Amino acid sequence: MILVTGGAGYIGSHTVLTLLQHGHDVLVLDNLCNSSAEAIHRVNRLTGKNARLIEGDIRNRALLDQILGEHPIRAVIHFAGLKAVGESVQKPLAYYDNNVGGSITLIEAMQAAGVKNLVFSSSATVYGEQGGAREYTETMPLGVPSSPYGKTKVMIETILGDTAHADPAWTIALLRYFNPVGAHESGDIGEDPQGIPNNLVPYISQVAVGRLERLAVYGDDYDTPDGTCLRDYIHVMDLAAGHVKALEHIADKTGVYTWNLGSGTGSSVLDVVRAYEKACGKAIPYTIAPRRAGDLPAFWANPEKAARELGWRTERSLDDMMADTWRWQAKNPQGYR
Ligand code: NAD
Ligand code: UFG
After folding, report:
1. pTM reported for the whole predicted model
2. Dihedral sign computed on CA atoms, order 80, 126, 316, 240
3. What is the pLDDT along the chain (337 residues), one digit of tens a residue?
4. What number of other Cβ atoms are within 10 A of residue 190's Cβ?
5. CB hemisphere CA count around 90 (13 angstroms)
6. Which of 9, 38, 67, 125 is an S-S bond match for 150, by CB 3.0 to 4.6 Å?
7. CA of residue 101 to ligand 1 center, whole Å
8. Residue nearest to atom 20 of ligand 2 (CA)
9. What are the distances in angstroms from CA 63 to CA 37, 60, 114, 120, 189?
């Protein structure tokens, strides 16, 4: 059985679905601070399987001890955490407490229970500012992320590395995601941000569905082909498949493994807008706004290590990502509510 922390969230719910389809038993622990139990109900309906959801917090050591004591957990996929970059600048302690503190409590409980197999949601943000347009490779040194959120990812990677160094029985996969977007092809599960979205694709979606008036494109004077920032967008179902591959790969190994999960291609903000317009069949009104503080001009993954070692590559195009996002948004204009 696989314990999935944060499994009711955006990436977690798609990964739970994929795990169930691969025949894994799944237990989800989520405090629902940024998600809805409805996501797991829908995953169970789509798969005809039964992932159980326990509503609770990864900072609750007694609850973790109980879960690890009562269920035959062989590995943990750890998604639980706060992820809003801007909010983390305003509320750094909440991010260090939830993300770093929560991860330490989880690692301690796993250590005590003898469950030493962990897949962790890291981020391309750990590479920090490397200067100019960059392809990130796993062998690059970690940088200094500009936000407390990003710093929590560097800290947790470091803590996990030191834990495995001290106790070689641990096996840890650090998965560095690039920009996850898209939704399950059914349109029944997807990303459901609370309040005004911070991220590009959820924002465009709400413009497309009439909840927001127009997109602000943050800067068109970068040194990129059309002047807007380049990112490596990855379909959330490709990302979910990467987790299953990583979990299966590390099952009979020990040590720490790091993989970029990205497509290897950068797309500009305007490329995304045009792909979304094609998917939804309407124009997305936008204005050019000043640059957003902390944004890097251009970065994308070198995905070769995951291809070589996991036999994993992205399969879905930017058009697929936007078509699936639009299906989810059109079927669920108010998200899960
Ligand atoms: P999400 O907010 O949809 O999912 C996170 C889930 O964790 C939510 O369901 C939330 O309720 C739960 N959670 C938060 N704190 C918790 C706690 N203390 N105890 C129990 N549950 C808790 O976010 P997501 O986009 O699915 O991201 C999942 C993970 O991937 C996060 O760690 C995030 O930092 C990381 N990540 C996300 C992106 C991205 O762009 N979405 C990029 C890189 C890395
Ligand atoms: N953008 C806009 N308008 C918006 C929102 C975003 O133009 O309303 C632009 C941004 O400037 C950026 C691109 O769209 O160029 C993508 O922005 P997102 O906010 O969707 O994604 P980021 O690349 O900024 O964020 C991602 C992850 C974070 C991670 C961060 C670190 O979502 O988890 O990279 O680089 F921390």
Report:
1. 0.98
2. negative
3. 999 999 999 999 999 999 999 999 999 999 999 999 999 999 999 999 999 999 999 999 999 999 999 999 999 999 999 999 999 999 999 999 999 999 999 999 999 999 999 999 999 999 998 777 799 999 999 999 999 999 999 999 999 999 999 999 999 999 999 999 999 999 999 999 999 999 999 999 999 999 999 999 999 999 999 999 999 999 999 999 999 999 999 999 999 999 999 999 999 999 999 999 999 999 999 999 999 999 999 999 999 999 999 999 999 999 999 999 999 999 999 999 8
4. 28
5. 6
6. 125
7. 15
8. 199
9. 19, 5, 16, 20, 28
- The identity of residue 173, as a single letter, is A
| Catalytic one of 136, 149, 257, 276 | 149
Query: Which residue type sits at 6?
Result: G
Question: Is the beta carbon of 199 within 6 A of some atom in ligand 2?
Answer: yes
Encoding tokens for residue 12?
């977690």
Grouping H, G, I as helix, E, B as strand and the rest as coil, residue 189 is: coil
Which residue type, as a one-letter code, is found at position 318?
L
Residue 204: C-alpha distances to residues 141, 197, 201, 298 (Å):
34, 9, 5, 20
Question: Using an 8 Å Cβ cutoff, are 6 and 32 in contact?
Answer: no
